[in-house]
Amino acid sequence: MRRINTRRSLSALALVATAGFVLAACGGGGNGSSSAGGKSPGEGKPECAQLTKYGNLTGKKVHVYTSIVAPEDQSQKDSYKVFTTCTGATVQYEGSKEFEAQLVVRVKSGNAPDIAYVPQPGLLATLVKQTGKVAEAPKDVSDNVDKWFGKDWKAYGTVDGKFYAAPLGANVKSFVWYSPKMFAKNGWTVPQTWDEMMQLTDKIAATGIKPWCAGISSGDATGWPLTDWLEDTILRDAGADFYNQWVAHDVPFNDPKVAEALDRDGAILKNPKYVNGGYGDVKSIATTTFQDGGLPILKGQCAMHRQASFYAANWPKGTDVSENGDAFAFYLPVTNQDNGKPVLGGGEFVTAFNKRPEVQAFQTYLSSDTWANEKAKDTPGGGWVSANKGLDPNNLVSPIDKLSAETLQDPNAVFRFDGSDQMPGEVGSGSFWKEMTAWIATGESTKDALDKIEASWPKS
């Protein structure tokens, strides 16, 4: 699924996003389902059980618009074969790198697709509030999400109490990459708490190896990896409820709890004894690309790199990414046991712009456990996962995908969507990125960085 591009293209979203969307608690999604009539081609096939009620859809087409482009689009297209077999309808797939910049424009101009895979809750709210053309999800979809996803996920597809969009793919950001082989060789063990992680950090530093490496350079989006650091730490320090308030600006961006979390990150990232393995001093973090950030692990120049599950795509060809291999990941430990197991991540949401039977049938299929497992089987190269609890991790190819699925399905997991993706564009993809970069590159203080971001928050 779309992983890296989600964050890179948010600068385009800033052109169309409005300020301060607060997603309401889950709505019912009570719309009924429509039917084309006639006998469904899927009658009698177990995998088609949810789709036969939509009737015979032979000859109908569903137009899907998404940012998922080649080569990742092929597994998407392959995963629709069961839908076509069950209904007779086909999917017209359109992937575009200009998705965020064009979607709102197309919808407003009357050129909306049937379905769009929307990668940010803020963009979903923009579409609902600015266009009035988003169709509320049918009951079958709402029921599937209630069954297969957590309440947190349903809330992110809900705007003003109405449920519109089911989750699709997902990624986990609460990971620290390391080398199991390197750890085994040195007798290091994976830490279970933040304090243990800091003790390990000191132990590694004493050997002459820099414990951490990092990179935040990403063109116009430079700084975004540090927003993930801070968001993850706020979840661990202050909890999910406070995190929600902070993202919605119900508490100031520069609240003392936020400053405490950023200083906790600074104890690692601004300590020259701890960083930046393989690249240089603290300031080198700002000039090292996020793609290159963790690569010194393979050379033994650093030991840990905090980055999302999608970082798996950046290891060189031939790297053994597995539990005992050259590279793998562990869950970023908690600082406060009272906050459960917070998981920071991202994902896409299936957003519809009409209620034709074939469109509702496709929405139902994508929200089911059937599709999640078909998609896993049709992604032989790995690099995709879903928070769908009906997904069998054994259908996932790569060990990191399996770890991600297990993390998302953990009954103790408290999932929260990437905060900057929900904030107004002036902040989430503007001042937040800029000031986090200055915090590292120029040594800007925690207070100054957070005060400047707070001052940039739109007044209305």
Automatic annotation (TrEMBL):
Keyword vocabulary terms for this entry: Signal, Transport
SUPFAM superfamilies referenced in this protein's UniProt entry, alphabetically: Periplasmic binding protein-like II
Keyword Transport in annotation: yes
Signal peptide feature range: 1-24
Family: Belongs to the bacterial solute-binding protein 1 family.
Stored PANTHER family: ARABINOSE-BINDING PROTEIN-RELATED, OSMOPROTECTIVE COMPOUNDS-BINDING PROTEIN GGTB
Stated name of the protein: Carbohydrate ABC transporter substrate-binding protein
Organism: Nocardioides pocheonensis
